[in-house]
Amino acid sequence: MVRTVVAIAACILVGAQEWAPAQRRGGEEQKNPVDGAVMVWVPGTAEGCPGGKFRMGSTPEEINQIWTAQKYGDDLKPLVGPEQPAHEVELDGFWVYKLEVTIAQYSAFLAATGHAPPEGWEQAKKSPKLPVSYVAWTDAEAYAQWAKGALPTEAQWEYAARGPESRIFPWGNAWEKGRRCQAIESYVSGAVKKAFQNPFGNAQAMAEHYLRAAGAFPGGASWCGAMDMAGNVDEWCKDWYSVTFYTLPASTQKNPECTDASPNVRCRRGGNWSSNALFCRGAQRLGSDPTKGDKTTGFRLVVAP
Asked: pTM for this one?
């Protein structure tokens, strides 16, 4: 159930990027007039969180809980290093897309801007309700500029996914079937995954087989009403990716964002249709080459009030 939180000093969208004073509530919906995307309001931590801050990252207790439940081996523990230490952050309120950007919306962007289509587009555009994939970070950033929005920072994305309670998954703390688009239940090696994927002949056909329409799993909604924040496609974030960012003072500043470009990789969040529970957690962090997209990568936007 969407948590209702009253926000102070608010606005609603009343025209092409014009905002007027009003009261906002967590989960309140508005549409972006550029691409028609439904957005949900995420109240700032001052209004939405006890103590005015959100706990970002994973505690040892949370990590032990998922390891015990999923029977993971210690060899996987290094994968959670970048999401530690857990720390508190303060965020201003923002609008977040309720759904991942769809093929239909991306098609409108391509038609309006002449931007180069992603790999496999002729096949992909036949499924307009699926989330777009094969988009590089640079493609997602171009879409954001066209739609008058932005890619979410890691902190915005994680807060929208986990909420004031810092849930392990968007819906709660237990891994449950039927709450996300996800094809592999347990951890498997790369070799097993490759064999699992081979029957589809090409990557685009494989992705379409496993992907589901954006918003097809309402039981997996986060506290603010955002859908598919676990599974379906990984989602690009605005930040550069640093495995040590959470150890730096910048990670605890208000509205934090990693601006260190030295690793030359950008953040991805949320897991995808081929991810297991480990990678579908709200705190999980990954980094990828911003110039490349693949069959598992899409995005959603945020819009400032």
From this structure: 0.87
